[in-house]
Amino acid sequence: MSTVEGDENESLGNASNSAVTNEETSSNTTRSGPLNDSEGGAKVVFLLKAAGGAPILKKKKWALPRSKTMGHIVEFLKKYMQLDSQQQQQLFLYVNQSFAPALDTTIGSVNDCFSSEGTLVLHYSLTQAWG
Amino acid sequence: MGQSIDDKEITRELWQSRLPICFILSDEDMSKVNRSELPEPLYLMLARHSYFPCIIEKIHRYYSTYFKENVNETTNNINLANLWLEFESIPLKWHYPIGVLYDLYASSVSSTSHLPWQITVHLSKFPEGEILRFPDKESIEAHYMSTIKEADALKHKGQIIGDMQKRDHKQLWNSLLQDKYDGFWNINNKLMNYTDNLQYFRYIPFRVYIVDKPFIQKLFSPYDIDQDKFMTLNDLLDFVLHHEAQCELLANEKKILNTNVDDYQVIIHGIQPPINTPIQWLSEHFSYPDNFLHICLIEKRT
């Protein structure tokens, strides 16, 4: 992802995604929260975790503009992990360890709904780990 | 939300709603037909809540008879993978319910279209990058089940779908395919229950569609605890438009969307529900079989 930024040391407090404000916990929020505009670009920060025997990435934390799609992330991961043509057939991205959004879903809307305490976690897998 | 017999009748009426569609082969592909008679338009009455891939084999079979299979000449073969549908130059996404596509693209006041909905079938020049190829039946089912799980994650933290047997999941999809209202709602009723001592869903599964934009989805509770009242469709749209406009501002978009709800026609299942309808009620009765409210906003022309 050419627009990737953020290193391992960046504190999550600087993340610009927020389905919750600093005062509320995710269980009390009634709607997607105000956006933290200190980053100035409304990037979504997310963690990529391996599932279903997929290779583990050294770099786990990434950032993307809200309008990028899940399909964009899938295509990037296929190249980044240097999957062979057999493996490249299937790479699945899961949210909440339960569902795989359609590939044209924006990371912004996934973040607005499923980030928890300021972080969005996505699981990637070479098998249909959660159906 | 109180249930009345009339409310259940609404879900049955929505289940039975159909769209008359006229499929016409593209001029480009028409020129490759190697028979003396050209294909007539194909007319089908399709369920609004179904998906185009569910009838793709029917379309494929129909047009296959007009193209002679020639092993040495690949250009004349119909490759199902190259089939795509188009309306007024817009390639149609296969994973959106048919009714949503119609409401979004064909129902606007400025459109010159009328029923039957005229869709162009293309057998070549697949618009790579704009849409995904039509998948097999297993992929559509997987997409449908994924959407159901997402809806339940929003409504019930995934508790109800997680507790269901695999055969119940199968029954949802098969009932959808076989047009069995009772078979579907026997299982779907469980997904309309309340959990966690709430008298409503934790969050409403919804998507807002505006032409030329990716769909908008946000967290929204149907009940405001502070004001002690149920939120309406107007409340939801007001929140969604303002939140999204703020996102666009921060992303330095050139054109920010119109945040005035009154400037849009609000269409669900082809009709405009009263804007003060409680969103909890709409979620229970107006959701598509995937348990999402698919709301199309068409800007009114002044």
From TrEMBL, chain A:
Ranges of biased composition (kind: Acidic residues): 1-10
Gene Ontology biological process: autophagosome assembly; autophagosome maturation; autophagy of mitochondrion; glycophagy; piecemeal microautophagy of the nucleus
Gene3D superfamilies per record: Phosphatidylinositol 3-kinase Catalytic Subunit, Chain A, domain 1
Record's function text: Ubiquitin-like protein involved in autophagic vesicle formation.
Protein name: Ubiquitin-like protein ATG12
Pfam families assigned: APG12
Biased composition (Low complexity): 21-30
GO cellular component: Atg12-Atg5-Atg16 complex; autophagosome membrane; phagophore assembly site membrane
Family: Belongs to the ATG12 family.
Ranges of compositional bias, category Polar residues: 11-20
Subunit structure: Forms a conjugate with ATG5.
GO terms assigned for molecular function: Atg8-family ligase activity
Keyword field: Autophagy, Isopeptide bond, Ubl conjugation pathway
Region feature Disordered, mapped onto this chain: 1-38
TrEMBL record, chain B:
Keyword Cell division attached: no
Main localization (coarse): cytoplasm
Membrane topology: Peripheral membrane protein
Autophagy protein ATG5 UblB domain: residues covered: 203-297
GO MF terms, alphabetically ordered: Atg8-family ligase activity
Domain annotation Autophagy protein ATG5 UblA: ranges: 14-123
Residue stretches making up the Autophagy protein ATG5 alpha-helical bundle region domain: 138-193
InterPro entries: Atg5 (IPR007239), ATG5_HBR (IPR048940), Atg5_HR (IPR042526), ATG5_UblA (IPR048939), Atg5_UblA_dom_sf (IPR042527), ATG5_UblB (IPR048318), EF_Hand_1_Ca_BS (IPR018247)
Keywords: Autophagy, Cytoplasm, Isopeptide bond, Membrane, Ubl conjugation
Localization per record: Cytoplasm; Preautophagosomal structure membrane
The organism's place on the tree of life at top rank: Eukaryota
GO terms under cellular component: Atg12-Atg5-Atg16 complex; autophagosome; mitochondria-associated endoplasmic reticulum membrane contact site; phagophore; phagophore assembly site membrane
Gene Ontology biological-process entries: autophagy of mitochondrion; cellular response to nitrogen starvation; piecemeal microautophagy of the nucleus; vacuole organization
PANTHER family tied to this protein: AUTOPHAGY PROTEIN 5 (PTHR13040:SF2)
Family of this protein: Belongs to the ATG5 family.
Assembly information from the UniProt record: Conjugated with ATG12.
Function as written in the Swiss-Prot or TrEMBL entry: Involved in autophagic vesicle formation.
Designated name of the protein: Autophagy protein 5
Organism: Adineta steineri
